[in-house]
Predict the 3D structure of the following.
Amino acid sequence: MRLETLAIHGGNIITDSEKPAIQPITLSTTFVHQPDSMIYSRANNPNRNALEKVLTKLEFGADAAAFSSGNAAGVAVFQALAPGSHIIAPDDMYHGLKNAILQLFKGVLEASFVDMTDLKLVEKAFQANTKLVWIESPSNPLLKITDIKAIAGLAKSHQAILACDSTFATPVFQNPILLGADIVMHSSTKFFGGHSDILGGALITKKADDFWEKIRVVQKVGGAVPSPFDCYYLCRSIKTLPYRMKGHAEHAGIMADYLNQHSKVERVFYPGLKSHPGHEIATNQMSGYGGILSFQVKGGAEAANNLISKLHYFTNATSLGGVESLIERRAASEGPDTLTPPNLIRVSVGLEHLDDLLEDLDQAF
Ligand SMILES: *Cc1c(COP(=O)(O)O)cnc(C)c1O
């Protein structure tokens, strides 16, 4: 099956004797004891199985585990590491997961935060106890591109696991496992859900090995699992993911060009722009540049806030990946320690008519 077909048929498991065309929601938390039956829905349930099945296929993996949020998925990887392990992670790592390492695993795990676009710095960061390399590409919010194949080579030569947060790319545009990653992580709250109404996360593994078994234990025993309702809705949303992503990327590409030649804009960050420092690598490892862009406006934080306040069709809110356009001054969401420039605006470019979006930006400028 090709991507679009897989997205529609890959997560539909019909076991009901009445043969509904669409897999129903099984809300029961418990199952009648019989040989090989499911037992309890924290461990296993039909809707989560269907979701994990379609995720596995979309990312060319061996297995997938669904979680109640993207952060829960990321934290499960850190929890599966032995105490005393060292992690190499991006200096601009998604702030929620960076905080998880720094706050929840303080004294348990060590971490070095490095610029993943500088392979020499990454190589230097390895220690005898380095067990995990975590990358995020494209990154949030500067859309930095990490060379997944190159980092996979480094991780392999040091016997470390490579995990890639591929939330911005989605499997429509990037398959980290095919580029050498061991684990792919997604916040399914974003493009998978696609309508800003489901919180979820996922891990997909290249191999069902011992480390994966530990992650499964964290999922089942830790219990940060999605509800059958959320799994059902994610399977439903995934059916349109390939077409939504095509629309998001087309709109983001044209909007990036528009902003790039605007006199009130200092700089635009979008991997599809030839001027983007990661453009060449993105072109090699992605089949599209995604639906997120960010830009710096002239005039600092005040000018950025001012611009956002004048928009009609872009909702001033955090998060991304929904059909509706969202916009925010990113540093305001990341707290006082952020490295994000104060005049940086991140846009999740939605599926409204592109001319309405561009006209709205025009009047706000
Ligand atoms: C949102 C996001 C996360 C965290 O996911 P939640 O579902 O909010 O817990 C992790 N990484 C990236 C890149 C994200 O955008």
Observations:
- The first strand starts at residue 63 and ends at 67.
- The chain has a mean pLDDT of 97.
- Residues 69-71, 94, 96-97, 136, 140, 165, 167-168, 187, 189-190, 199, 201 surround pyridoxal-5'-phosphate (CB under 6 Å).
